[in-house]
């Protein structure tokens, strides 16, 4: 019996020793290795260069690479949606923007993402839904370039009228407005 107690005590002591945690610093380790974050940022910049040149296919590959390296890269997610929209993949772009809206870092980006969702919905022929997102963006930033270009809303002194779409975007022109936000 004494042998069993000594053995159990011995095993218990080793089991406790294996789970000892040593705290080296005050800050927790980063969630992703810094090398992956740097690689993600590099792929993001390469994607932006391709987007500026109008190479949406190459830009998509770079933004996907950036997200693969760092799934928390908000800008890579947003610009991936823009590149997909420029290539005509509107439903995929819509899904990216909707996800980006959840992770927008500030109100300025919320306005941009809402306006871009509205723009994407215009391309998809869903004008009534586009008005909802344009209005959300307008409340945050009434000077947003997409809102100014495509959305007509009631302003004080004009009388009451229903908000409406000013015009439909042609080809890539709507998404090219977003390229002003690259820097």
Description:
This protein is mostly helical and 183 residues long. It has one domain (33-181): Serine Threonine Protein Phosphatase 5, Tetratricopeptide repeat. The chain has nine helices and two strands. Mean pLDDT is 84; it is low at 20-24.
As a percent range, the share of helical residues equals 55-70%
**H/E series:** HHHHHHHHEEH
Distance between the termini: 75 Å
Strand content: under 5%
Secondary structure category: mainly alpha
What CATH architecture would you give? Alpha Horseshoe
Number of domains: 1
Q: Tell me the number of helical segments per DSSP (H or I, 4 or more residues long).
A: 9
Please write the CATH class name.
Mainly Alpha
- Total strand segments: 2
Let me know the average pLDDT.
Answer: 84
Largest sheet: 2 strands, antiparallel
Q: Any low-confidence stretches, pLDDT <50, length ≥5? A: 20-24
Whole-number radius of gyration? 25 Å
């Amino acid at each position: 019996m004494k042998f069993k107690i000594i053995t159990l005590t011995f095993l218990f002591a080793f089991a406790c020793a294996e789970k000892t945690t040593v705290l080296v610093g005050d800050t927790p380790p980063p969630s992703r290795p810094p090398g992956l974050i740097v690689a993600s940022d590099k792929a993001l910049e390469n994607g932006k260069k391709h987007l500026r040149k109008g190479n949406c296919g190459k830009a998509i590959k770079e933004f996907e690479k950036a997200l693969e390296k760092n799934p928390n890269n908000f800008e890579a997610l947003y610009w991936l949606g823009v590149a997909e929209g420029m290539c005509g993949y509107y439903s995929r772009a819509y899904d990216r923007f909707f996800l980006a809206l959840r992770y927008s870092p500030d109100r300025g980006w919320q306005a941009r993402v809402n306006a871009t969702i509205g723009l994407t919905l215009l391309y998809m022929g869903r004008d009534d839904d586009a008005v909802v997102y344009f209005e959300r963006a307008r409340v945050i930033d009434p000077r947003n370039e997409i809102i100014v270009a495509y959305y007509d809303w009631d302003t004080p002194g004009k009388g009451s009228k229903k908000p409406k779409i000013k015009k439909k975007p042609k080809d890539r022109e709507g998404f090219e407005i977003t390229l002003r936000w690259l820097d």
